[in-house]
Amino acid sequence: MVNENQALLDYIAARKAANADYYEVASTSLASIYGSASQPVVLVITDTSLKMLNTSLTGYGILVVPNDFEIQNSTLQWTGIVMVRSSLGQFLVNTGATGFIRGALMLQSGNQFTLATTTVGAGGFKIAYSCQAIDLAMGSQALKVVSRTETSY
Questions:
Q1: Do 49 and 69 touch, CB atoms closer than 8 A?
Q2: How far is CA 43 from the centre of its chain?
Q3: pTM of full prediction above 0.85
């Protein structure tokens, strides 16, 4: 693969072509829940930015935001991959943000990451890398041993 970003974009394009749990949604039309652990989705925000203000979003799979992503007085609980595509974009976690990204947060080179908290909101939002959540987002099945061998030296 050329790089991780291109690999993810290729996967998203394949899911779109197959119309397999693929959603393109304006931020004003967001549902509160997308996908499940057994059926992850690709959710692409069609607006320039996603500003979560006094709302909540829960999901499993891949969340793609074209430019700016701001969370303020809201809850985001996403298991999988969150990608902010623009090299000039921002990922802002502001006061009152709660929840988590479990998997990976992919920011393009040049993105700005800002974490602003108060004593009330401190520690309310977490980003945790998880191979299992990334595998889930990409539709990967867990590996299993089909045979094994031992060699003596």
A1: yes
A2: 9
A3: no
